[in-house]
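Standup notes
- HV: blocked on the assembly model, inputs below
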Amino acid sequence: MSYQYLSYSVLRQFCVDVFQRFGFTESEAYIIQDVLLSSDLSGIESHGIQRMVRYHKGIEKGMIDVHAKREIVFETPISAVFDAHNGMGQLAGYYAMELAIQKAKANGVSIVTVRNSNHFGIAGYYAKMACNQGLIGLCCTNSTAIMVPTYGRVAMLGSNPIACAFPAEPNDFLFDSSTTVVTRGKLEVYDKMQIPLLEGWALDKDGHPSTDASDVLANIAGKNGGGIMPVGGNKEELGSHKGYGFAMLCEIFSSILSLGCTSDECNINNKGGICHGFMVINPALFGDAEQIKQHLSSYLCKIRNSPKAEGQTRIYTHGEKELEAIARAKAHGIPVQDNTIMELSNLCDYLDLDFTEYFGEQFLNFKDSGYTSQYS
Amino acid sequence: MSYQYLSYSVLRQFCVDVFQRFGFTESEAYIIQDVLLSSDLSGIESHGIQRMVRYHKGIEKGMIDVHAKREIVFETPISAVFDAHNGMGQLAGYYAMELAIQKAKANGVSIVTVRNSNHFGIAGYYAKMACNQGLIGLCCTNSTAIMVPTYGRVAMLGSNPIACAFPAEPNDFLFDSSTTVVTRGKLEVYDKMQIPLLEGWALDKDGHPSTDASDVLANIAGKNGGGIMPVGGNKEELGSHKGYGFAMLCEIFSSILSLGCTSDECNINNKGGICHGFMVINPALFGDAEQIKQHLSSYLCKIRNSPKAEGQTRIYTHGEKELEAIARAKAHGIPVQDNTIMELSNLCDYLDLDFTEYFGEQFLNFKDSGYTSQYS
């Protein structure tokens, strides 16, 4: 795998144009690109623009409805349930979090859930939206079943990430983590590199530990059994039931509280059915928000400055790695895999956009025989 | 280690009497025993009556103030911050959750935090209080620093449990889990049995993995460095930063939002300083509460009935193991270690209570040379 470094500002315009060609309005396209590129900027390639082609396929299959009208099916001053009606996940997520922020500003706290949505990118994006306004943001989502519960052999839960963002100095605290030990993207990378998975990551179709990436991925795709372990592995001794429990919390705050599809029912028969959950809390519910912010900042600083394990030079607090990746990407460009560049270049041909107009002629050789959508 | 089986109803009366001798009122003593014995009944021996002597020492040292007057230092209709003023953790926890339930019943949701408290027993007890009234209960606490952050070598976070209880049939969902891979109690058991710890549990004073229970425990006690790993271990490859992140969420919802002591400052210089967090959510904020309950119940049932890993016969959903332990203990008595019986018998002498009056004469031989409080 080799990487090219593409300019953030050019990629932005490119994404906005592409999503408009998909049928979204300019403002919608802007939101979607912001979620995707925030992921690429943060170094989370798996949830960034490399998914554009997948989203395009989702639209063509009818799994993602470009013209979906979100509907509030239940509402109180501090809560709401959205039905996304199969719309784009990023739009469902953005507007649900916007509503949650508005309600928390008015009433101190809010919880908004969403059903019948699609993959929404990184959960941290939405948590950060609240944090950018001085509020505590929490976000979770369910997803295609890929996590096998402790002692099981069939995936019944998603990778089910939880994100929490809390204002702090010099950098906000931002925790964003799947509750599986690793994500499917990591398995795909190991598969491409043809190296064995780490012990403690994945299970074969009978529920035994497996280090064979290609077998595990094939079983996941074919729904033959097996999948990824919860954080904590597949035995209670190392806390498997804990990771499985945290994944259940995601399920509760997304699918259960929206009366939507649980992970085992998501992305089946051409229906996404993904559910999300958003919570916003005003820290001023607990006293002086600035004092609370300083209290967290000082604790984070103490942790970072605490003695390191022999051989280690740094203890990170959550959010630091992403911020450093953002600074690098803004200075030197966003790293994009050759594979992804080829896909995007072909997508451009298909959409009648000129890829070289955005990124110059150096990528002409990335074009292959022409992009034909799998479903057209 | 050998166990005796003591009657639940006799133990209740015994605990109420003992805590009254400690100086608590009858109703306070009743609450404390209920938290402790709920733990023993559920099979969580580490947080049950075996801690009575430790609480007694805490009172004698002045770390726990029997006559502490809890004070609400900040309040809104949906939130409150308690200062427990060094009171008994179980009382702080109980009354904070009571207030949270009351506020959630009135306003749909509530968050109450507590500072300057002490060890409060099992977090699940308080989450279950809300659940018993048809509400969603969440609870977390910080604790003595014992978790070493990823790449560190000094404990900066507690075992920091998170509990969530949600009404379901036939049994409520009850997740209650420390965010360390195991608790200190587990290390103590391995130490007593003189067998090596599992790989992936603990770190020595330099931050290297260690399987030497007695060395790790001595370092923890002496604050020499080392401690227990987060769930996910000590490397990012298996998700160490995830367990560390979940522990940070506990810290945020306990010490940070109460402006209290963070775990690294707890139980130092004869001051507990422990902080707790409680959240209650009315499921009716999201539609028909009964329908939501059925939705979760059906998902839990599907998970339990999903195919098992080869060689496994059962998939548990969270809360089942505890319920089965409760049924066993109510039928056959609560298992109490000989060691604990000796401690309790000696404590009785010290408090001028007659141990044999509660449990019969068969425990007379458990008495040793007389209980002398370490601090009297």
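- HV (later): unblocked. The domain at 182-228 of chain A is CATH 3.30.60.50 (Wheat Germ Agglutinin (Isolectin 2); domain 1). The longest strand of chain A covers residues 109-117.
- Next: hand off to the docking folks.
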